[in-house]
Design goal:
Blueprint lengths: L5 E6 L7 H13 L2 E4 L4 H16 L3 E3 L12 E2 L4 H9 L6 E4 L1 H4 L13 E4 L15 H19 L3 E2 L3 H8 L2
Parallel strand pairs: 1-2, 1-3, 4-7
Antiparallel strand pairs: 5-6
Helix pairs in contact: 2-3, 3-5
Amino acid sequence: MIERRVYFLAKSEYFTGKGLKGWLVKTFMLGVGQLPIDRSGGKASEASLNTALKVLDRGDVLGIYPEGTRSPDARLYRGRTGVARMVLESGVPVVPVVMIDTEKAMPIGAKFPKIRRIGTVIGQPLDFSRFEGMSADRFVLRSVTDEITLAIQELSGQEYVDVYASSVRERTGK
């Protein structure tokens, strides 16, 4: 499929745990190409996105989950615009990739994953060069993010919900 290492953005909490467990999780995450992202917003989030841009500038592959968190119920939620900003600032194409049945392999709240086969569907590359130089326009960022999310929805067949997954998780505790 791909002969280059894929780096992924992962919530910064995975890298700040205490004790032996915290050290093991951090070491594992770094070893498998995870990069910490601070999702609190503002300068902290911007610094994390700039780290991700450096990965793209090197010509490496970056995997991004546009929703910014796990779905609480296997539906597809509104994407965050950070992905669009990175795409427009780097000029790279987006290859939508969908993983099927991850919620069955690692249910929300489970301490350990279940041994299951995870399906993968790879879509056609998406080119956003028509928006070159427009990465500061919030309407363009939303449009690019929505186009990426639509491609994911078409590949996955998931029901789309036009709210942020993090809002639902906060409200439901999932």
